[in-house]
Amino acid sequence: MDNNVSRLSGEPVIHVKDLSMRYDGGRQIYDGLSFDVPQGRILGLLGKNGTGKTTTINILMGYLRPRGGECRIFGEDIRRLSPATRSRIALLIEGHVQYSFMTISQIERFYSRFYPKWNRAAYYELMSKLKVSPDQKISTMSCGQRSQVALGLILAQNADLLVLDDFSLGLDPGYRRLFVDYLHQYAKAENKTVFMTSHIIQDLERLIDDCIILDYGKILVHKPVSEIMSEFRKSAPENPDPYIREREPSLLTLEDAFISLTGKY
Amino acid sequence: MEKAIIVKEWLKTRLAAAASMVLCLAMAAYAILKINRLVALKGADHLWMIMLLKDNTFIDAIQYTTVISAIIVGIAQMAPEMTQKRLKLTLHLPYPQMRMVGLMLSVGLAELIAIFALQCASIAVFYSTLIPASLVWRVVLTSLPWYLAGLIAYLFTSAVCLEGTWMRRVVLALLGVCAVMICYLQPAPEAYNGMLWMIVAFVFLLALLPLGSVLRFKEGRQ
Prior knowledge:
CATH topology of chain A: Rossmann fold
Strand content of chain B: under 5%
Strand order of the largest sheet of chain A: 6-7-8-3-9-10
Largest interface: A-B, 27 and 24 residues
Shape of chain A: globular
Order of helices and strands of chain B: HHHHHHHHH
Helix content of chain A: 25-40%
CATH superfamily of chain A: P-loop containing nucleotide triphosphate hydrolases
CATH architecture of chain A: 3-Layer(aba) Sandwich
Mean pLDDT of chain A: 83
Radius of gyration of chain B: 19 Å
Distance between the termini of chain B: 28 Å
Oligomer: heterodimer
Structural class of chain A: alpha/beta
């Protein structure tokens, strides 16, 4: 199903219904988790450490079998995603994992064979900011530079859905902002759907349309960011946290709302 | 796509493959030097006599190099897939997943077969200048189980590396040791002639073992 068909049919790009997950012999991660990600939306999945953000991405990508529930991406069951559907999903794994034994040019040539809409120019445009030679091996780069290579490869895939797990890890503030701006512009111009997690919430505020805040075992909030912020600002004067109560409501951020909902620890 | 996967695997394993080749050729050279010394001291007819009457092929030095080489290549190829979480990346590529793993294994096996063929050929070519073809063939047949042991060791190493849980890794490693030992139980020349085809069939079956590890990884047993 291409973008237009998906949009016309109104079918969400990601559909999760009654998902439950428990690790063998461990605690329940969540039970009855349901959400949809419609075409063209940027959704941020937020939560404290251990609430199941990466677990959710692992389930969606077919690397974990949930205890129950239904997950579909582009209408396909995630347990049986076809290669054609996988080519429409750009996946950034936590830690910006890549084939670090390759050079910048080798890895570009490698990926370009798999993705029909490969955008070589987008990759090299981002690489030009790194000031490294195309023959440099990725393993010899700094952590931040490796992250930038991984993000360049993600954008060059020109996929319909981008799944980014902790995309800001290791990036310096300048590049983080550059990437957030680039991704926002790119996703809106090309009607891409993005599903992402990040620990740096102030980045997401400028980027995401919708937000899911996970707590241990459940979804606390699933709303557009604008709605979350407007409700939070309205209720700020009654907030038990003096920092939030005494602050000018227009200066409150999504991070404040997140901490107010989930607690500091 | 196949070419891209083959190139990727080659880039990843070329150093390990080169190290394995150096090891195999160095041990082959050592065996050749020993035979050369014997021929220089006692003559080629003495070599013949010992080979025929004492069941000696004079290539014992190479017998474990195949297994060591296979473990080196297997670890270099598969261990980073798990330790660096690259298997998720690999399985996400738009290519049939089991075919992808099969292709990765094929590259490792092809490298080892090339190394083993070179080692075997170097010894056979050297021997053919000293002894008749029937005896050269006897030497080759004697070394064949060791090469098959190398392939078995490679497939078990791959399965152990791709396995997600320590318990299964230990079990697979122990099974691997037992399977490899089968090829070294009988030291007499050509002792395995009658069952070579069975070992070959076993190697083909073993190729399913790493695929099972990948399927368990996908089930979340990590």
